[in-house]
Amino acid sequence: MAKETSLLKAAWLIAFVTIISKFVGFLRDVCIANYYGAGLVSDAYFYAYQIPSLAIILMGGVGGPFHSATVSVFAKLVNPDDKEPSEKVKKLFNTFLTLTFLVFLVLSLLIFIFSDQILNLIIHSDNSELVVLASKHLRIMTPVILFGGIIGIYYGLLITYRMFLLPNISPVLMSLSIIIIVAFSKGDKYGISLAIATSIGALLQFLLQLPAVRKLGFKIKPNLDIKNNLELKNLIELVFPAALSSTIGQIYVYVDMFFASQLKEGAWTAIGYANRVFQFPVGILVTAFLVPLFPIFSRLVGEKKYDDIKYYFHKGVGLLNFVAIPIMFGIIMLSYDAVQLIFQRGEFDSHATYMVSQALIFLSFAIIPYVFRDSITRIFYSFNDSKTPFMVAFSSIILKFILNALFIEKLGIAAITLSTSLVTLFNAFLLGCIMLRKINLDYKYYFINLIKMILAAVLAFSISYILYSYWIIDNNWFLLALKTFTVFGFSMVTYVLFAALFKIEYVGELIERIKNYIKRKFIY
User: Fold this and answer.
1) Cα(511)–Cα(6) distance, rounded to whole angstroms?
2) Are 22 and 173 in contact (CB under 8 A)?
3) Neighbours of 103 (CB within 10 A)
4) If we measure between CA atoms, which residue out of 430, 388, 386 comes closest to residue 236?
């Protein structure tokens, strides 16, 4: 019970700081949308940003291969309660850091030199101005690539030592840099300030972590002690396939970019904004629970306590699904209104709102498999197995291409996000089947709870749709916001009532915790 309470406290802390980070990220996107809308400049920036984002978000971010490998290996080597790590651990840190710096330095130089050729491969468009502008943005943002893996290592160390605040709040710095610099430059014609702000933000993320890591006893002393280094070998064996897996995930994005560049101007920007709206609630949920759970999984695997792994898996994924399912239904019902509230101002018009909302609806179907896939991937990493997630991701590249090609003519922009949802489901299914070779996670229990939650959500949102349909708003921002929040709030209350009726265990726990909180605060 003490461990469970500690986990929930960590989850609440991470959820809180992630909400702040995501909210500031929303303000960043609103700022970009206001000055650049969904057109040539925004498309050029978002096409170019996909490459540095691979380093700073997918590889170096929380949940990325460098963060995951660091947690998986160092959680077994250090005691968070010790005052200082051993010299062996410090040396391992510096060896890993030195290798990572050299690899990312070479990558950033190559991308700077060959930016034109890279973007000509990715962007399938006759618009030469788009390719030239995207290439200019990419060259400005190459420093972001250099910081990616290093930030990931720092994140991993801090989380291993149960310091959850900094890794989850530091992305705010990039968002703030973009907001301040773009607003100050008043949206320069070609978006150069946007690319410059992105690079400055990555540098600030690195500088924020540095004092905390040094305080733990990890000072930068470059070395290349790679001979007969078993722990380094374990790190590389985890990082390399996981990095390839992230790269494979990015290939999905490049496939999407290839098809999106054949659609009307602003299509790629719209897909990017849809993904950001999707990631706001889902990213908060997944980060809040899986970041503190991952070190627990790693330690339990080391101690061979497989029943405890099963318990924490069902606890974490069950709670995630309980919140994620009504979010999915809420997106389907309220997507257009929500996008209009968030983005529609300045250069961002009603046509752009429609494109984003269409992409968002089909992307929302990915929520349940997304939660399952990311949760079970952490268990694979805990078993020092990053090859399996890589092979599963690799196996679905052709599927992604085929689905895009099949749907693009009839569905347009929505085809790309629908194929993303289907590929996520495919990956989750394969990973779930393969995990049975390592540990039986009792999927029957998982699916019984999942079906109950979906049924509760269907009933709740069917009733709420009646309220939504009869509440007509004529271009009044305040009334539109009131309608959106009221309908969603009513849906959530109704959902919880149906969930209680179906005896979903998380509702009882939630009510009990609220009762205990009230007793502690107001009665005793």
Assistant:
1) 19
2) no
3) 13
4) 386
Domain presence at residue 255? yes
Residue 349 tokens, joined: 């018009």
Give Cα separations from 348 to 34, 36, 38 (angstroms): 6, 8, 6
CA 124, CA 131: separation in Å to the nearest integer? 9
- What's the rounded Cα separation, in Å, for the pair 225 and 86? 16
Contact between 21 and 114 (Cβ < 8 Å): no
Residues 6+ apart with CB under 8 A from 324: 281, 282, 285, 367, 368, 371
Q: Lowest-confidence range among 134-148, 237-251, 252-266?
A: 237-251
Residue 437: the pLDDT is 85
Look at residues 514, 516, 510 and name the one whose alpha carbon lies nearest to residue 319.
510
256 occurs within a structural domain:
yes
Nearest alpha-carbon partner for 147 in 211, 90, 100, 85: 100
Ranked by mean pLDDT, which of 106-110, 158-162, 215-219, 353-357 comes out on top?
Answer: 106-110
Domain assignment present for 503: no
* Cα–Cα distance measured from residue 217 to residue 215, given in angstroms and rounded to the nearest whole number: 5
Average pLDDT of the chain is: 80
What is the distance between the alpha carbons of residues 177 and 56, in angstroms, rounded to a whole number?
15
Write out pLDDT tens, residues 53-65. Answer: 877 766 666 666 7
Tell me: pLDDT of 261 over 80. Answer: no
Is there a domain that residue 407 lies in?
A: yes
By residue range, what is the domain housing residue 10?
Answer: 2-441
| Residue 19 to residue 41: CA distance in whole angstroms | 28
Say if CB 41 and CB 295 are below 8 A apart: no
pTM of this prediction exceeds 0.70: no
Count how many domains the chain has.
1
Give the number of C-alpha atoms closer than 13 A to the C-alpha of residue 58, restricted to the C-beta side.
20
